[in-house]
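Reminder to self: tokens first, then the designed residues, so the page reads top to bottom the way the pipeline ran.
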């Protein structure tokens, strides 16, 4: 991780906010609308360059990114999962990031 831990804090803060929003819905995760998902995915895409810069190695990056993307997938309706995964893969491809094989 970057010496100051900025990437870990930023990623975990986003995850905490997403989980808190889900928790406010009577303790159960309520599926986000496509519009809400787009907003969250746009925010993740905007954070991606800083997350890449702030993490020292690929393992740290993938731990942070997987936590964030999993939280988004968890908040999606089953009908939107393919859409969310396509958006996540597109943002990784656009940033030149190759998922571990």
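Designed residues (101 positions):
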């Amino acid at each position: 991780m970057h010496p100051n831990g900025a990437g870990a804090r930023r990623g975990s803060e986003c995850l905490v906010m997403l989980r808190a929003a889900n928790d406010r819905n009577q303790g159960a995760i309520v599926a986000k609308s496509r519009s809400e998902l787009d907003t969250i995915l746009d925010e993740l895409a905007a954070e991606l360059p800083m997350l890449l810069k702030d993490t020292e190695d690929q393992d740290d990056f993938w731990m942070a990114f997987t936590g964030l993307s999993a939280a988004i997938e968890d908040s999606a309706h089953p009908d939107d999962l393919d859409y969310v995964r396509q958006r996540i893969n597109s943002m990784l491809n656009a940033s030149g990031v190759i998922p571990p094989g």
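Residues 2 and 13 are 16 Å apart (CA to CA).
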